[in-house]
Write a structure and sequence with these properties.
two-stranded antiparallel sheet, 362 residues, mainly alpha
């Protein structure tokens, strides 16, 4: 499905007609400002090619007004943290708009190349800058953890190319490829380099986001202060897990839900914390007497597991066991951390919890 059809489908789902969506887009809105800069580097606004590339990205961005509105609503939740980290690192505040271009400020955004998270870091880049990426933890999904790593990477790129604009291009397509094109084309001017089409658009997309998010009212977006999403608020608890521990126990100890723990800790994958010490965010107030409740829950959990052991019999398979105990097959996989494709062996032990009795509907 092409871009225009996707946008129209979004409008349809939101009850917005094309006329409504476009009624405030004017030529003045997409006009190239004369003194435009990005990260303090002047944009050559006198070049016709630059004007056309800029106006195209402005039009495409403003065309998708529901998406822009979501950016504007998410911005108060995430951009202040990014600005704080940029200031601490002595880097231009404009770089915060890169996170919107990369992920629309969504922690679980991913690409076909394997880039994930707010900053769309590839696994090898993330690990190079100190992030954990494995089957249990993916710190690229956590803004608090991934932002310093992404900024360190950007700072290294800016030192390599002596230009924030080229650093952004390299962030998009890889520093080695940018180096090769500079060498071959004999120019270090991003706006004069012939690069892959996505990278030719990339800096202009950041510019479009900068202008629109920086002055939404100018582009027809009317938001009151209360329309923005609130900043994340939480307590942090240090959790010592003697062995693999269900996240639901942490949720219970913090008097909250499994979902709340996952939402506040998007870097935690699956249903378990691995053995070791972990800093975990919990809703405000959830840290009070957390450890006391957690230790009791751990002890109760260990005792209950011993009472819920089923020994695999000859001829058993996961499906037949799930059917026998009237539990979902997926639950067996979660409780026992096993692969659906693995053959069970007679004598093997499985943990099976009973289906809880649900209250009758009134």
């Amino acid at each position: 499905m092409n871009f225009a059809l996707r946008i129209i489908l979004v409008w349809f789902c939101l009850g917005i007609s094309p006329a409504m969506a476009q009624e405030k887009i004017t030529a003045a809105m997409v006009r190239l400002p004369k003194n435009l800069n990005l990260c303090g580097e002047a944009v050559p606004t006198h070049l016709d090619d630059v004007r056309e590339r800029f106006e195209k990205e402005m039009l495409l961005t403003l065309w998708d007004r529901p998406q822009v509105l979501l950016w504007l609503k998410r911005a108060p939740r995430f951009l202040p943290l990014i600005s704080q980290e940029l200031k601490k690192a002595g880097m231009p505040d404009d770089l915060k708009y890169l996170a919107i271009v990369e992920s629309a400020l969504m922690p679980h955004a991913g690409s076909s190349r394997g880039a994930v998270g707010f900053w769309q870091l590839l696994p090898e880049t993330a690990r190079k800058y100190g992030l954990t990426v494995d089957e249990f933890i993916d710190q690229r999904r956590d803004l608090f953890l991934s932002t310093p790593a992404a900024l360190a990477y950007l700072k290294d790129l800016s030192k390599r190319f002596s230009s924030w604009t080229l650093a952004l291009a390299a962030y998009n397509m890889g520093e080695g490829t940018v180096d090769a094109e500079i060498l071959e084309q004999k120019t270090r001017d991003y706006y004069q380099l012939y690069l892959p089409l996505e990278t030719q658009r990339f800096v202009f997309r950041v510019l479009a986001v900068k202008l629109i998010v920086g002055d939404p009212q100018k582009y027809g977006f009317e938001l009151a202060a209360e329309d923005g999403y609130d900043p994340l608020r939480f307590d942090t608890v240090n959790v010592d897990c003697p062995q693999e521990t269900p996240l639901r126990l942490l949720a219970q100890a913090a008097n909250t839900s499994f979902k709340a723990i996952k939402d506040l800790n998007p870097h935690l994958r699956g249903h378990y914390l691995q053995a070791g010490r972990h800093a975990v965010r919990v809703p405000p107030g959830g840290s009070a007497k957390f450890d006391e409740r957690f230790q009791k829950l751990l002890a109760d959990h260990a005792q209950e597991r011993q009472q819920r052991i089923y020994v695999v019999q000859k001829g058993d398979n996961l499906s037949s066991i799930a059917e026998k105990f009237h539990v979902p097959l997926a639950a067996l996989l979660i409780w026992n951390r096993i692969d659906m494709k693995r053959d069970l062996q007679p004598g093997e032990s499985l943990v099976i919890y009973p289906r809880p009795e649900l209250p009758e509907e009134p």
